[in-house]
Amino acid sequence: MSKKIKLELTWIGKDKRPRLEPRILLEDPELSYAAENRVSENDIFDNILIHGDNLLALKALEQDFSGKVKCIFIDPPYNTGSAFEQYDDGLEHSIWLSLMRHRLDLLRSLLSSDGSIWITIDDHEVHYLKIVCDEVFGRDNFVANLVWEKKYAPANDALWFSDNHDHILVYAKDKQSWRPNRLPRTEEQNKHYKNPDNDPRGRWMSDNYTCAKSAKERPNLYYPIINPHTKEEIWPKKTRVWAFSHETHQEHVSENRIYWGKNGTNSTPRLKKFLADLRQKGRVSTTIWPYSEVGHTQDAKREQKALSGLLAGALFATPKPERLLHRVITLATDEGDLVLDSFLGSGTTAAVAHKMRRRWIGIELGRHAMTHCQPRMTAIIKNQDSGGVTEVTDWSGGGGFRFYRLAPSLLEEDKWGNWVINRAYNKEMLAEAMCKLEGFQYDPSSTIFWMHGQSTETDYIYVTTQTLTHEQLQVINAEVGDDRTLLICCSAFRARLEQFPNLTVKKIPASVLSRCEWGKDDYSLNVQTVMGEEPEEFEPESDELLNDSPKRKQNNEGRKHKMQELPLFATIIEGDDK
């Protein structure tokens, strides 16, 4: 008898988890772009292009977009040992696994309950990545390993085999409730549909009217049918009866769905299946995607070359064809859904999502965020890109996006080695950063100075660099009243806090020093990211401890409970022990 066993993939540095700082995003208006006028009512303007380390960027998105992304497509470095101009693709194996694990953890938290993630990879790491994805997303949520035929010709100089395919691993957030959309039918599939009897419902083809059941197994399907042309009584074979009950057959007769041949003299009836009905249902995608349907690498390079006059840098080394992304987005989303790519590269995912009228978020660390992605998306909005899937999506321009950069770290070291608030932060940036750190939505009031953000209907936050006196806190406490609570983040305070039951006061930066790895801007492909020592934990002095009043704790319960509901990722793979 089999029993359940536990299997997991281990590697050096797997348990080292970075303590990420949830950065705020700063818009660069000069690189943001939007159409001057609406082209259609469905134009989308709230798209996001982020330049910065993708691990920090994903953390920055977590508060606002957790559980809201319908489709994630990523084309990460394959770890093949090849060096490209835009990035180094030759990491030591364990570092690559940690790089992926950290990002997959965050990507899973961003996926909606009916969302899916699609990851392109080749043979070098696909089997290891599959196990890591099983741990993060759950083995039961694995959907398929798609095979993309990326080349149209064999490499005759290959030493072993010509590498003509890549893999696309597909996982659902919840496989039991997730279903891919159907694909539109092709003309090749439709060519067998004719209309020999000029049926007003259009083209059709006939299908078998019997099934592989015997009269003994299904006696209700063994009955006579009258040929209306010859008046002959037709019985099925006893070893292969009709496929439909007598009641359903009568419906087919009344709907003129029975075909007896050109002259009406066929020995058995056939069922008319109309193309119009099948078009509405679409076709199921297979797990093998030939380049004739979704394009190959040379297509991708030609598409990028056609835009070379608009791009500021060298052509991207490993782009994906637009037809490939069109297939993914068609299967995974509907119009208006949110698509995310955290390894945006040359911008293909954002380009296709925009043309397909989906909302999108793209993250790219390299300079090609500015040299490739930004000008490419601007050209699409201006309707200056006629290639790729422009024609098939009937794209004619419109919409917009905002270009963001990651803010610098909230804290920096002064010349004496002390952590202080970064001088690059103005008061608005500081308030927004503290809201994100404390789990509040940044929403400053235009009339009440101490309302910088809100976590519940009655819980607010106030951020200031002032040293607050007892008298100042007394005034604020009176305005807050008995029915609201307020978290105050300030540089220092001189007060007897027990007199203010609705206020919680914290000093910054002391109260947040232990939260994150401050001053760290790079979590990309390097050994130190995984192997480095963890920073020492900051132990606050007694007067830095929280002054959570009973009333504020009660009003805060919803927010704190929500923050504690971060997803736990199983590292158990179930199998049989034989």
TrEMBL record:
Biased composition (Acidic residues): 533-546
Regions of compositional bias (Basic and acidic residues) in chain numbering: 549-558
Membrane-traversing stretches: none
Keyword Cell membrane on entry: no
Gene Ontology biological process: methylation
Keyword Aminoacyl-tRNA synthetase part of the UniProt annotation: no
Molecular function terms from GO: DNA binding; N-methyltransferase activity
Pfam family, one: N6_N4_Mtase
Domain annotation DNA methylase N-4/N-6: ranges: 69-370
Keywords associated with the record: Methyltransferase, S-adenosyl-L-methionine, Transferase
Region of interest (Disordered), ranges: 533-567
Family (UniProt): Belongs to the N(4)/N(6)-methyltransferase family.
Protein name: Site-specific DNA-methyltransferase
Originating species: Lujinxingia vulgaris
Phylogenetic placement of the source organism: Bacteria, Deltaproteobacteria, Bradymonadales, Lujinxingiaceae, Lujinxingia
